[in-house]
Structures are given as C-alpha cells and as structure tokens.
Amino acid sequence: MKKIPYVSLIVPIYNEEKHIKRFLESLRAQSYPIEKMQIILIEGRSEDQTLSMVQDFIHDNEDLDILLLDNEKRYQAYGLNLGIKIATGEIIIRLDAHSRFPENYVEICVTTLLETGADNVGGLAIAKGTTSYSTTVAKLLSSKFGVGNSEFRTRAKSGYVDTVPFGTYRKDLFDKIGLFDERLVRNEDNEFNARILKNGGEIYLNNNIQFDYYCRDTFRGLVESGYLNGQWNIITLYLTKGSMRVRHFVPFAFFLYVLIGSVISILFPIVLKYWLTILILYFFLDLVVSIIISKTIKEFFQLFFLFPSFHLTYGFGSLIGLFKVIFGKLRC
To answer: 7-216 has which CATH code?
Structure first.
C-alpha cells in the first residue's frame, strides 16, 4: 500500500458491558497506523455500564483519535449516519461492539477495498460463545440448516456477493447513493447493500477478513433476536422494495406451513399424513444436523430444540411484521 489512507471507524453501541472492553482492546491492538485512524463511538444511551467503560477507555488512551457521540434515537441507522457525517476519513469502516476484531482487520479491509475496486468489502463473521450455551448457539448460527445460505456466515470462498457484515466503503459512496435509511430499525445494511448493487456497484467478500461475533447467551436473547429479525424483514421489504432475498423469508414460509397445515389437517383429516411428511423430514434434518455438529449429549439436545424454536419464532416475527404493514403500525 503506497499511500496509507485516513480511515474512520464507526461503531454504534448500546448495552454492551459484557463485550465492550474486549472490543475496545481489539481496536487498540490494530496494526493500522493510529495516526491514520479515527474512531467514532456512537453511544445509544445504554442502560448498563457501557458508557462509563467507554469513557474510561478514552481517558486511558489519549493517543487515539476517539469521538464519542450521543445517539438519542438509539437506532443503528441514525447513529451510523451521525458518524458518517462528521467522519474525516476517506474510507469508512463500520464495526460492531458485540465483536472482537483481529489486529490486522483494518489493514486487510483497506487493502481489499483498494485492490478490488469494489464499493463495499467485508469478510466472515465467526460466531463465538463465551459460555457453553452461547457456544451451542454459535453452532446454530454457523450452520446452513440454521441460517440458510448466508454467505458471510457459512461461505469459505472469496468473491462477489450480495451482502457482507458491517462493511468498508469509500466515504464518497455516501455522497453518490445516500446514507443509511433511517426508517429501518433493522436491516439498514441489507438495504444499503441492495442500493449499491442497484446503482451498478460491487460487493466483495474476502475470506481472509474474519472477526469473532459473540452470540446471545440466553434462550430468550436468541428467540427475541430471531423474532425481531423476522418482523423487520417484512417491514424492510415493504419500505424498500428489492432489498431482501428469498432466504430471509424461508422461516416465514415454514411457520405458515405449520400454522395453516395444522388447521387444514383438523378440518380435513385426509390431509394430515401429507402435512406430517414435511414435518417429519424437517425434524429428520434437525436430528441429523444436531448429531453432526454437537460434541456432547447435552449440546445435541440443545441444538435439536433450538433449531425449530429459532425458525418458528423467526417466522412468527415475520407474521407480526406483515400485520404491522397491513395495519400501518411500523414501529416496534
């Protein structure tokens, strides 16, 4: 890299006391020259100790160029736009405080962006757990049976894709196609990536770019995340046509199959055996995948239970999202 570009790292933060120290230390350890790095932390008025921990880090690392902003609306799209507007870097890298980034992360992202000429580059999100339960959840979120053909979670090859997690962009891209859509509480990255492709741009996944993403460590956290993702997939599709993919709605189709099929089977018993055939196939796949990726009996039973729980709550969320679209209630 002949010329080292100035980079702005933009990080929305909310209630991350469990992970923020690990995340900030991974920024401190970056191999990219600190004099070429601006860190913009957008704090969403956390209800735990996140803010005080961030302030302590800033106080102890005065050699780093760190800006701390108040995200009064808490939504990520709003916070990201706050950061982008005041960023001084010619390259923008979005990061997530629920993660830990290797020391060469910024360096590889910048190099990949410059070498490929793509409009957005990213890598693989490696799901990790900090407890035995969250390690099991990580296996669910890393399997194709769990999350479908989500390339940045399950793909090993580098190449051009339709989305990457977080992203690295030239700042002038936002002047060309606009900022993140602030109507979206979730999926702002999916919508922005769809806009890149719609405007003739390219998105590149480099499998040498990897980071650890820390999973939910409770059952409630997992299904709540699935429920909200499912809900906002429908709302995002309604608000921004063409920004979501078929894979985002497979859990919804499965949920409707279970719901409608059960009703029809009660009314018309002759249909029952056909309805059960698909369910038996699903649970057979659930059984096989759980056996293959589990290491203990306990983990097997957890996975066998978590797969349908995650898929059904995700699909139920999509149904609620559809109701919100129909009845015009688009705020959670």
So the answer is: 3.90.550.10
